[in-house]
Amino acid sequence: MARKQSGRGGMALWLGLALLVILVDQLSKTLVMQAFEYGDSRTITGYFNLVRAHNKGAAFSMFADGSGWQRWFFIALGLLASGFIVWMIRSHPTQKLFCFAVAMIMGGALGNAIDRGLHGYVVDFLQFHLPVLGILFPGGYFPAFNAADSAITLGAFCLVLDELLRVKRAKA
């Protein structure tokens, strides 16, 4: 019985983390939408700008030129992925790094899904630019992103780390 209790307590922790990601993401996007008009940019450092960009597609604006189907597809994908993540957290409540990773991904996915539902696009506002990025991106400007995207990226990194650690433990 104690294990179920800790599993429920763990579930609350991970759902709370996902909710925190959603709140930070939505608050930051609201502040940007209040302070910037679409397309505005403010230089912060020689390599970082705050901008207001709208993304109707997925990462790097893939599918942004679609006829509108992508809005509903990505909302549904975010909701389905979140349901699957809740199941995974319930199935692996003692794997803290794994649960952290998928909670971050869920929070980011839902943060961006909220944008799609409210606006029809995702609000992006963080933009890095370095000459070395010019190899892959025009003018060295990495595509703008947001707090939700950052949480998804951190979660994906932690998933890879978790798997590498799991493989290392299995070999030991």
User: First CA to last CA: what distance?
Assistant: 31 Å
The average pLDDT value, as a whole number, equals: 89
SS class: mainly alpha
- Percent range of helical residues: 55-70%
Structural Rg: 18 Å
- Along the chain, the helix and strand elements come as HEEHHEH
Portion in beta strands: 5-15%
Number of helices: 4
Low-confidence parts: 1-6
In total, how many beta strands?
3
Overall number of domains = 1
Strand order, biggest sheet?
1-2-3
Main beta sheet strand tally, sense and closure: 3 strands, antiparallel
Descriptive notes:
With 172 residues, the chain is mostly helical. It has one domain (10-171). It contains four helices and three strands. It has helices at residues 2-35, 69-91, 96-119, 147-171, and strands spanning 41-45, 48-55, 122-128. A three-stranded antiparallel β-sheet has the order 1-2-3. Helix 3 packs antiparallel against helix 4 (147-171). Mean pLDDT is 89; it is low at 1-6.
Write the layout of secondary structure elements.
Layout: H1 2-35, E1 41-45, E2 48-55, H2 69-91, H3 96-119, E3 122-128, H4 147-171
Short description:
This protein has one domain (10-171). The protein is built from 4 helices and 3 strands; from the N terminus they run αββααβα. The chain has helices at residues 2-35, 69-91, 96-119, 147-171, and strands at residues 41-45, 48-55, 122-128.
List descriptors.
172 residues; mainly alpha; 3-stranded antiparallel sheet; 3 strands; 12% strand
